Amino acid sequence: METDQLIIPKATAKRLPLYYRFIQNLYQSGKQRVSSAELSEAVKVDSATIRRDFSYFGALGKKGYGYNVQYLLSFFRKILNQDEITKVALIGVGNLGTALLKYNFTKNNNTKIVCAFDANQEKVDQKFGDITVYPMDSLEQILSTEEIQVVILTVPAPVAQLVTDRLAKTGIKGILNFTPARLTVPSNIRVHHIDLAVELQSFVYLIKHYSNEEVVVGD
Ligand SMILES: NC(=O)c1ccc[n+]([C@@H]2O[C@H](COP(=O)([O-])OP(=O)(O)OC[C@H]3O[C@@H](n4cnc5c(N)ncnc54)[C@H](O)[C@@H]3O)[C@@H](O)[C@H]2O)c1
Questions:
Q1: Cβ 39 vs Cβ 19: under 8 Å
Q2: Once rounded to an integer, what is the mean pLDDT over residues 179-191?
Q3: Which of 18, 20, 87, 181 could bond 160 through an S-S bridge, CB–CB 3.0 to 4.6 Å?
Q4: Does the beta carbon of 199 lie inside 6 Å of ligand 1?
Q5: Which CATH superfamily is 86-197 part of?
Q6: ipTM above 0.90, yes or no
Q7: Interacting residues of 99 by C-beta distance below 8 A, sequence separation 6+
Q8: Which sequence spans correspond to the domains of the chain?
Q9: 100 in ligand 1 pocket by Cβ < 6 Å?
Q10: Domain 10-79 is in which class?
Q11: Whose CA is nearest to atom 7 of ligand 1?
Q12: Where does the chain show beta strands of DSSP type E?
């Protein structure tokens, strides 16, 4: 199946990395097939949803047999572009930015922070593993030469839009916005806003009202 032109619902797309990680583990443990019930138990998504999700990719499973693990793995690898590394830059090497640079998403082998930027001269030239912190003067040039597609924004809220306005003139495709600022961007750039305070608040609410059920965030 041609995966480049697949259009799938957002909720399905969000579950793909979950499926992928589990299938990868199955493959590594030598398992050759998996049923939707087993998948359901492992990723905590009901099996009807799994079957519907998988149906967007064509008939991947056989009745009474389940899904072929190796086939699923190569399918998800392709659809999630696991063979292609998406280069990420981080702007704002403060408390949060430093933590993210140190983490560097080692579990996701297809995304990698390759450079960082900060306005504070004292932070410039610092190294986090193989990531260097560059001055803001070199932002546009480095984003372009490194072919950065995604920027993680961890600057103080009052400067977030100013930095975003500069980013809007580069070739980046997305901003992962950790600041509380609501960003205005041109239509060719997608913004994903992450607010830990809101996540925590809604989680506490769910714990109080839906005890004993695991909740998949993003559903
Ligand atoms: N989303 C969340 O859950 C969450 C959690 C904590 C913090 N935050 C937000 O993340 C941001 C960073 O928080 P922090 O605690 O790491 O702050 P911080 O003050 O420790 O770090 C901010 C960094 O940005 C740099 N900076 C300032 N102006 C800049 C500019 N114009 N261009 C480039 N770099 C610039 C500073 O030099 C500093 O290194 C804030 O907006 C904060 O509200 C979000």
A1: yes
A2: 96
A3: 181
A4: no
A5: NAD(P)-binding Rossmann-like Domain (3.40.50.720)
A6: yes
A7: none
A8: 10-79, 86-197
A9: no
A10: mainly alpha
A11: 96
A12: 33-34, 61-62, 66-68, 86-91, 111-118, 127-128, 131-135, 150-153, 174-177, 190-193
**Burial letters for 52-66: b for 16+ Cβ neighbours within 10 Å, e otherwise?**
ebbeebeebbeeeeb
Distances (CA, A) of 28 to 32, 60, 107: 10, 20, 15
- Give CB contacts under 8 A, 24+ apart, made by 57-61: 57/1, 57/3, 57/6, 57/8, 58/1, 61/36
Distance 115 CA to ligand 1 centre (A): 16
With vertex at residue 20, the alpha carbon angle to CA 108 and CA 147, rounded to the nearest 5 degrees, is 40
Estimate to the nearest angstrom the gap between the alpha carbon of 135 and the chain centroid. Answer: 26
- From the CA of 157, give the closest atom in ligand 1: 41
Q: Is 113 helix (H, G, I), strand (E, B) or coil?
A: strand
Does any ligand 1 atom lie closer than 6 A to the CB of residue 11? no
Q: Where does the pLDDT of residue 37 fall: very low under 50, low under 70, confident under 90, or very high at 90 and above?
A: confident
Confidence of residue 215 (pLDDT cuts 50, 70, 90): very low
